[in-house]
Design a protein that fits this description.
The structure holds 2 protein chains of 2 kinds. Chain A is mainly alpha-helical. Chain A contains 16 helices and 2 strands. In chain A, strand 1 and strand 2 form a beta hairpin. Chain A starts with a helix and ends with a helix. Chain B folds into 3 domains: 176 residues, P-loop containing nucleotide triphosphate hydrolases (Rossmann fold, 3-Layer(aba) Sandwich); 72 residues, no CATH class; 310 residues, 3-Layer(aba) Sandwich (Rossmann fold), CATH 3.40.50.300. Helix content of chain B is 35%, strand content 23%. Classes of the chains: A mainly alpha, B alpha/beta. The interface between A and B is medium-sized, with 27 and 37 residues.
Chain lengths: 342, 589
């Protein structure tokens, strides 16, 4: 009951935060003088292409770029009607990408879930690799196991990701026949979901997951090791040992539970960091994620595309932090009861 | 018949350094209590941990045998395979640790942690284990065992947590219980109750016990036989009666001399002349509001209420109470670190006849002056000195902050203060880690003195120290007070410590002063049941005067359960009345 109330409270604050974020995103995109269309119109006029000018003028009116900023904002989020029926984000209309000359939804639509998929896979990869390695490194600290895992970890941190990507593509192809680039075989693109398509996506994801995840695994493993070492010195660990628990069970039941909390709190930060951090990888590995789109949209002042991608990343962050907050409340009675007492 | 546990020629060392436990031998018979006595660094804790083989990773057993058990199951614990020793741990030999606050996992329910012992060793189902655990909880004195089973450690007080630890250690009915300073972190009244509980449980179950302690009073109350250790060597060994009534070894005699005791008093003291008070607390209350989550209203917590105290110039006022009694809040308010609720005033007169200063309304300039004149000595000398600062930097920093003197004069002052606290000025270049606990506390005192204060607030300055060191620090504080003409506000939980240094004692419980008098008057004629409980709970190193548990429990309970004359009705406490000159007691008329 208490938990449900807290969840509702967090959901509410999340929505409020989203509103604030949307204002900020919109303001920042509109900070540079001019907009994509006025720049384009000026250019078309200069080269004497009257036809293009007419179309650009039409778009300008449709998306209200000639209106005051506050009205443009309301139109964008979908609270004020635009000319010719532009209805805004809240009503599912993401706007128009001027640079690509097609609706935003057509550009990002298929990429959204692939982005989420790739990043989710990388996050899971990080947690599944880093936790056992970190615990092992702490339990066997200052032995060869610790040194070997640390060495591999630092190697992962220090190798540039794109280099790792090229190496893995090369050897993956050569020895086990992994596909190179993309997230699915071209024949499945635009096809409905089928067993073959799923298989294709999964095999294509192996190398990207590994590449995006390695640095994260190395960093998290070292931090978990440090946290675990702190916990291992605490008296309750001694109590558990004196009870007669076997080392593996003792480690996972007691110190890991305590040392793990900061990493639950990390989920929220991990998601957006990977969307923006994996831009180079996406380009190198030609992954159809929205990272590269964000980059071009920002460079060309393609405001609806940039705005939507930024909002999407912010949404991921907020959902991530909400998940970690709720998980922490479930996992840590001190937080739960602290809230109840207070 | 062979003893239950037989430790022979045990040596333990770290790395290639010389051993820190050297050739220790002792034995424990079934049903008997052996006390392992010594100060920090004596090797007593390493010795008892080696029995269960839970030594720190860097320590190794160099030699020795630890035979345990009866008949066919008798074996050397040190030679057992890891799998076998795990079966012994928690089942046949269990252990209680010093810090109940940290010895339980904060994230698991008490019931889960305790019943784990049974599911691990007894092949019991969860429901069966729960039934046994609840029965054990009842026995160790949880008022509501079901609730305790579901509780998390942070929901319980220190005493209750230690009861949970005892339950965990007892639930599998072990043959031997090792208790490593089980009551050191507890308040003195709680200590008395926990010791009483351990004794009863032992009598009922017939288990043997190794009690590791530095407190001869605890030994006298609990032990059948005693092993005194110093620097890794056994100094003296024998039946408790013999060792305690006629200590043979010089070291044991030294420990006895240093053990703080509440003195026998022949007549009450004359009331002290308190006209010239350096510090006055008038009508001090402090209410904290626990922040509510979401939309609910906050609820108030009364840390202290209507406290009136005076520190006479050149004297020592001691505030005594258990944790949570409000004594530290009073000290913080006295130092201006916290503001009292409106209505209270803190008045400070740096010199007699000078214009008094309101500590709760300091102007900027007054605040700077006040911070020089009033200094604090903290409880834990290990964490109150920065490990990265040399002694000289630590000692001159206060003067630099207040822009006093030149570099050279500051250095000289630091050297002079080191001499005052009995350290050598050569030590200025060293780092704190090169000093022992007692020396570090001397350094903290020296640091507090560098600004020539007139008032020193000492917050439990000796409770982290060994008894013999505690004695030295108290003497030092007395010498400084009389030599420099300082006044002390002395915070402590220990009446015996206060007995020697204080000129007046205020006993606090639940935010109010319940009794106030000069120590001699207080010990001659303790009136309040809580004061009586504090005095009764003090373990005396005399085997013939055991703790009077009845007196402890009648006074140490909640104020709502005190005898009629003294009882609180909820937050409404009776008034503080003067029953004889200079002796105030909180009671109904």
């Amino acid at each position: 009951m208490m938990f449900l109330r807290y969840a509702a409270y967090r959901l509410l604050t999340m929505c409020l935060t989203l509103v604030v974020v949307s204002i900020l995103v919109f303001a920042i995109i509109n900070l540079p003088p001019g907009d994509y269309l006025s720049n384009q119109i000026a250019e078309l006029r200069a080269t004497g292409q009257a036809e293009g000018v007419a179309k650009a003028e039409f778009l300008r009116t449709e998306f209200g770029l000639d209106r005051p900023l506050w009205y443009q904002y309301l139109m964008w989020v979908g609270l004020a009607p635009g000319e010719y029926g532009f209805s805004g984000l809240l009503q599912g209309d993401l706007g128009w990408s001027f640079f690509n000359d097609e609706p935003v939804i057509d550009i990002v639509g298929s990429k959204l879930w692939l982005t989420v998929l790739v990043n989710l896979a990388a996050v899971l990869f990080i947690y599944f690799m880093a936790i056992p390695l970190g615990v092992l490194a702490a339990a066997k600290s200052k032995t060869w196991i610790d040194y070997v895992t640390a060495f591999i970890g630092y190697l992962g941190l220090a190798t540039p990701n794109f280099l790792l990507a090229l190496i893995l593509f090369y050897y993956g192809r050569k020895y086990i026949g992994l596909p190179i680039g993309g997230l699915m075989d071209p024949v499945y693109e635009g096809e409905p979901l089928s067993w073959g398509k799923i298989q294709s996506v999964l095999t294509h994801m192996i190398v990207p997951t590994f590449v995006i995840g390695t640095a994260g695994v190395a960093a998290m493993m070292q931090r978990l090791r440090a946290n675990m070492l702190d916990e291992l010195g605490k008296p309750y660990v001694e109590t558990a040992t004196a009870k007669g628990l076997a080392p593996s069970r003792m480690l996972t039941k007691y110190p890991l539970r305590v040392a793990f909390n900061p990493f639950v709190a990390d989920i929220g930060n991990l998601l957006p960091a990977m969307v923006s951090g994996s831009v180079i990888i996406s380009v190198v590995m030609s992954l159809p994620t929205i990272g590269p789109d964000l980059l071009t949209a920002l460079k060309t002042q393609d405001q609806f595309l940039a705005g939507f991608v930024l909002m999407f990343v912010a949404f991921l962050t907020l959902v991530g932090t909400m998940i970690s907050d709720l998980l922490l409340v479930l996992l840590d009675p001190r937080i739960r009861y602290g809230a109840r007492e207070g | 018949m062979s003893p239950l546990l037989d430790v022979k020629n045990l040596s333990i060392g770290f790395g290639s350094a010389p051993p820190v436990v050297y050739g220790v031998s002792f034995s424990v018979n079934a049903g008997e209590t052996l006390a392992l006595v010594g100060e920090s660094g004596s090797g007593k804790t390493l010795t008892c941990r080696s029995v269960l083989r839970i030594l720190p990773a860097a320590a190794q057993v160099r030699s020795g045998e630890v035979h345990f058990g009866t008949g066919a199951s008798r074996a050397d614990l040190l030679q057992m395979a890891p799998r076998q020793i795990r079966d012994v741990r928690g089942d046949r030999i269990s252990m209680i640790f010093q810090e109940p606050m940290r010895s339980l996992s904060p994230l698991h329910r008490i019931g889960n942690q305790v019943s784990e012992v049974l599911t691990l060793h007894r092949d019991m189902s969860l429901a069966e284990a729960k039934r046994d655990v609840i029965a054990t909880f009842d026995r160790v004195g949880f008022p509501d065992a079901e609730r305790a089973y579901r509780a998390y450690p942070f929901e319980l007080s220190g005493g209750m947590r230690q009861r949970a630890m005892i339950a965990m250690a007892m639930v599998a009915k072990p043959d031997l219980l090792i208790a490593d300073e089980p009551t050191t972190a507890l308040d003195v009244t709680t200590q008395a109750q926990v010791l009483g509980l351990m004794k009863t449980l032992q009598r009922d179950t017939g288990m043997a016990m190794i009690l590791v302690t530095h407190d001869l009073g605890v030994v006298a109350n609990m032990a059948d036989s005693v092993v005194v250790m110093n620097k890794g060597h056994v100094m003296e060994r024998g039946p408790a009666e013999a060792v305690l009534s006629a200590p043979g070894h010089g070291y044991t005699q030294k420990l006895f001399a240093a053990a703080p005791v509440i003195p026998e008093v022949a007549k009450p003291a004359d009331p002290i002349d308190g006209n010239d008070a350096i510090l006055e607390l008038n009508g001090i209350s402090k209410t904290y509001h626990v922040r509510a989550s979401g939309w609910r209203a906050s609820k108030p917590v009364y840390a202290c209420s209507d406290v009136n105290l005076r520190v006479p110039r050149g004297k020592t006022l001691a505030i005594v109470g258990e944790s949570g009694s409000g004594k530290t809040t009073c000290a913080r308010i006295a130092l201006g670190a916290e503001l009292p609720d409106p209505g209270g005033e803190v008045i400070f007169r740096a010199e007699a006849g000078l214009q008094p200063v309101r500590v709760d309304h300091l102007s900027r300039a007054e605040k700077v002056a006040f911070q020089r004149q009033a200094q604090m000595v903290f409880q834990d000398p290990y964490s109150s000195l920065s490990p990265r600062m040399r002694v000289q930097e630590a000692l001159t920093e206060p003067m630099e902050i207040h822009r006093l003197g030149t570099k050279i004069s500051r250095r000289d002052k630091a050297a002079e203060m080191l001499r005052w606290v009995g350290l050598n000025p050569d030590m200025l270049k060293r780092y704190p880690h090169a000093f022992s606990g007692g020396q570090r506390q001397r350094l903290s005192i020296a640091r507090a003195l560098t600004l020539d204060p007139v008032l020193l607030v000492c917050d439990e300055p000796t409770s982290a120290l060994d008894v013999s060191v505690q004695e030295q620090i108290l003497s030092l504080l007395e010498r400084i007070r009389d030599g420099m003409g300082l006044s002390y506000l002395f915070i402590s939980h220990d009446l015996a410590v206060v007995a020697r240094i204080a000129d007046e004692v205020a006993v606090m419980r639940r935010g109010v002063v319940v009794e106030q008098a000069p120590p001699k008057t207080l010990f001659y004629n303790p009136s309040h049941p809580y004061t009586k409980a504090l005095i009764a709970a003090q373990p005396e190193p005399d085997i013939h005067s055991p703790i009077d548990l009845a007196a402890v429990s009648s006074g140490a309970g909640e104020p709502e359960t005190w005898p009629d004359l003294y009882r609180f009705e909820g937050m409404a406490a009776p008034a503080l009345r003067e029953i004889e000159p200079g002796h105030k007691v909180r009671c109904h008329a």
